[in-house]
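Weekly puzzle thread! Below is a chain. First person to post its structure in token form gets bragging rights.
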Amino acid sequence: MTGVINRPLQTVQPFSLFSSGDIALFQAGSHYRLYEKFGAHTLEYEGVPGTYFAVWAPDAAFVAVMGDFNQWDHYTHTLLPRWDNSGIWEGFVPGVEAGSLYKYFIRSNSGEVLQKGDPFATRWEVRPQTASIVHPLDHTWNDKKWMQGRKAHNSLNSPIAVYEVHLGSWRRPDPANEELYYSYGEIAAMLVPYVKEMGFTHVELMPVMEHPFDGSWGYQQTGYYAATSRYGTPQEFMDMIEAFHQAEIGVILDWVPSHFPHDAHGLYRFDGSHVYEYADMRKGYHPDWNSYIFNYARSEVRSFLLSNAIYWLDKFHIDALRVDAVASMIHLDYSRERGAWVPNELGGNENLEAISFLKKLNETVYALFPDVQTIAEDSTNHYGVSRPTFMGGLGFGMKWMMGWMNDTLDYFKKDPIHRKWYQNDLTFSLVYAFSENFMLPLSHDEVVHGKSPLLYKMPGDEWQKCANLRLLYGYMYTHPGTKLLFMGGEFGQTSEWNHKGELDWHLLKYATHKGIQDFVKDVNLVYRQSTALYELQFEAEGFEWMTVNDYDNCVLAYVRRGKAAGDLLLIVLNMTPVPREQYSVGIPQGGIWEEILNSDHSKYYGSGVINSGPQKAVKQFYNGREYTLTLRLPPLGITILKPVTV
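Winning reply:
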């Protein structure tokens, strides 16, 4: 398809979708629907079909649109600069229809010549090609039931168990051929029923925005407004989201407002000047990722990013945005040596402009879409990341609990014979667990770059590794906070994640790995069905230690509570491979208790040390509690019990 209709092309017609109000909001950093104005929009002007183009290039002396409709000529279709000094170049080009390839030819005031893709393009060519594509986003949605009831699925007192996925490497048509991908539709046909069967409530997609380099996993983007063409069209991506919604599964997108790459067709030095990035490379260059940092002090850049967040929520019905690399945004000295960064106007290390932008972002998102969530990936102790802006916070709905993840994995890596000396490291997370609305992440970052898969972080022989991993998952699901698990972890992937291949699905023919998968499925079910595990997951009232000082036996016990009186669960962890028979636990109420989950059950490839039948609590003061329950504690296992009668 060439994108050309049979009519002689005319010159660019003066035309604009911008009102004076749009310009004022754009220049104030408050416009959140720029995607309705910028980019390429097919329409009719004076009865003639064509495409309206608009691009922001404030330091350009000349801008033309070139494409397959004019044999990529640099001068045929010159865009017109607006009279209001907004830096916007625009115009209507008759005869250009959907499917046309295009770029902007820009001559800077300095004389430099550039060829750039459209920052607002809704579709791009498949890499390594770099042209933008004129592509309308027309779509008839069929997810009304989900959208009307979404608040109940997304609220902070609902169960949120997230399956993190890289679409290209979850499954491949040919695992040995990294150039072959399934389409959005083919992925949806496999992934949606799998996520549903496993019991996850949400899926989180690593960045799907267009990016030139596969090895960036999507975190180095050139097309912020385009779902990657690797797997199909934007509408096919919408169909996939719709399929998740029809299965009552929420969709979270990784969103990257922190940095972008230096590819020649991308945002870097867009018009020959530092348009989107800080001009001072002590603020504008990211040494870790060889990328460039958005200029959060520039109002037009704030409008670009703000509109981008709203775009995915508006046009694609996305249910949450996980904001990547927040720590690098809000700290001027992030990964920089002394002298390589510039303090702010107050002499501190905080990027005040980025903090201001994030507050504006969250205020706007929750005002327009009160039933979605924003989730911060932040590894620092910055105050109030998930607290409202009127309380001085950043306004996110949730924050990744990186401290829990690091401390927990460090503990589980240790041989059980040494764990009693490190138990306080494990329990430390409860000291600060309610200072933020935390999500517990076991993400892709923990299974790459030589860190080994989760299963091989565990000590011991094969049985102990599997038991430790089931215990880890049981601990995560019963610890306060929402949950996130990266693909492959649910069945004990034995190799590090590689974006060029696919997951080790063949492992499921082994009972060890099938047992891990079945346990994750069942612990997801217990989490979703137990109000005690999620109604107060961000409140101190929802958690209470029962046994926290039995260092010699490496046993921990705690109660999780829901809002209703008597709605509680007892969780007991045995961090050693030694079964504990007749182990006494002090508990707050008597009656009959029953075990609802045990990670050592034989169906999970455990040794079968379970508590079958009713367990009666006796009126006996123990460890500061009025009642005592005597249990069998499974080796390297977790048992979860609920009261049946009082």
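Puzzle host: Confirmed. Bonus trivia for everyone else. The radius of gyration is 27 Å.
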